[in-house]
Amino acid sequence: MLRRVHIYVCSSKDLEPESAGGTEIGKMLFHLYRQGVRSELGLIRMVTEGEPPPAAEAE
User: Fold this and answer.
1) Overall pTM surpassing 0.70 (yes/no)
2) Would residue 51 be called left, alpha or beta, if left means φ above 0 and alpha means ψ between -120 and 50 degrees?
3) pLDDT tens digit sequence for 9-48
4) Helices and strands of the chain, counted as H and E runs
5) SS (H, E, C) 24-42
6) How far is residue 49's CA from residue 47's CA, in Å, rounded to a whole number?
7) Nearest-CA neighbor of 5 among 55, 35, 42?
8) CA 44 to CA 58: how far, in whole Å?
9) CA distances (Å), 57 to each of 8, 17, 24, 39, 40, in order?
10) Alpha-carbon radius of gyration of the chain
11) Residue 51's pLDDT band (cuts 50, 70, 90)
12) Whether 47 contacts 33, CB under 8 Å
């Protein structure tokens, strides 16, 4: 699930997942997950800072 979110967020920000920016997003996602954010949609919303989330299929 974290990988799906990571790929989606990197794509929406036009970043390669293995780039420096992609790595930072991955760290942020991992931190949020460890803090208790378990929903894909919740993670996407927190990492994209108010950008519109994908359709309901993310949940």
Assistant:
1) yes
2) beta
3) 999 999 999 999 999 999 999 999 999 999 999 999 999 8
4) 3, 0
5) HHHHHHHHHHHCCCCCHHH
6) 6
7) 42
8) 9
9) 12, 21, 25, 12, 10
10) 10
11) low
12) no
- Asked if 26 contacts 8 with a C-beta cutoff of 8 angstroms, the reply is no
Q: Residue 49: what pLDDT?
A: 75
Closest CA to 8 of 17, 33, 27, 24: 17
Other C-beta atoms lying within 10 Å of the C-beta of residue 7: 13
20 CA to centre of own chain: 15
Which residues 6+ apart lie within 8 Å of 7 measured at CB?
Answer: 17
Q: Encoding tokens for residue 48?
A: 């994209």
Q: Considering only CA atoms, which of 17, 19, 58, 20 is closest in space to residue 46?
A: 58
